[in-house]
Description:
The structure holds 2 protein chains of 2 kinds. By secondary structure, chain A is an all-alpha fold. Chain A has helices at 2-6, 11-51. Chain A is rod-shaped, with a radius of gyration of 21 Å. In chain B, helix 4 (87-119) packs antiparallel against helix 8, helix 5 runs antiparallel to helix 6 (152-165) and helix 5 runs antiparallel to helix 7 (169-179). By secondary structure, chain B is an all-alpha fold. The radius of gyration of chain B is 20 Å and the shape is globular. The A-B interface holds A 4, 7-10, 13-14, 16-18, 20-21, 24-25, 27-29, 32-33, 35-36, 39-40, 42-44, 46-47 and B 41-42, 46, 51-53, 55-56, 58-60, 63, 98-99, 102, 105-106, 109-110, 113-114, 116-117, 215, 219, 222-223, 225-226, 229-230, 233, 238-239, 242-243, 247.
Amino acid sequence: MSEFFAMGGYAMYVWPxxxxxxxxxxxxxxxxxxxxxxxxxxxKRQHSSTES
Amino acid sequence: xxxxxxxLASTKNFYRLAEILTPLLAVACAILLAVGLYRGLFVAxxxxxxxxxxRIIYVHVPAAWMSLFIYMVMAFCSLLFLVWKMKLADIVxxxxxxxxxxxxxxxxxxxxxxxxxxxxxxxxxxxxxxxELILLFIYIGYMALRSSIDNKSTAARAAAILALVGVxxxxxxxxxxxxxxxxxxxxxxxxxxxxxIHISMLIPLxxxxxxxxxxxxxxxxxxxxxxxxxxxxxxxxxxxxxKENRL
Lengths: 52, 247
């Protein structure tokens, strides 16, 4: 297992590549979902204020 | 055909279609990436020249492909918007820009992390690397231009024109490894039929590439839905959905 993590001596290049990719892709998902939440809550507020 | 196209172009229909497709695509994306990562990190053999460092290919190449693919989507949508005033196309182009910029950044960063052990340098002003960096600047320029113009429709048109002009960079990136004597290695798998990469290394690469494409679809569709809701907040169908709590 430790051999796997060592990546034949290239661990300091391989893992940051995969980690950075994961971080950037997850950050985009997070940004998208929080934008969605914001839009929906704004719509609900807008709608309830026009209703009453 | 035109009718079908017209129907899809309506934001309401697009919203419904995206709503159905997104969860299915998200599952497909998770499976593709999980299997691709497993096969890329555990099953694929060690490279006889580059050792384990070559495994960076499984994020670097898919990211680089996405940087070009998303740009082509953006440019195509910009054309649809400029010629046929298709609002939906403008939204897709708009939400694609940050995703394209993200993948361009990843292609450059992971390339740098691969270049250091293999070429002995983080960066080299060679044709492939420089043209990819220009792509990043075009994406950033597109987003900056869009947000710097207050009039929404002027901003959309200006950005669309910029996206179309920027297309010239795409073949330059693609052929840079052939036109110039670059440090960057030539394509390993583009040669259909005789890819210069072993099948056990190729399969995870294709799985990852497909996974990245589906990922883009999932995020792009969700972002597009967000913008549709925002832009059509006052339309009857959005009101209806808000009332029924069906967003």
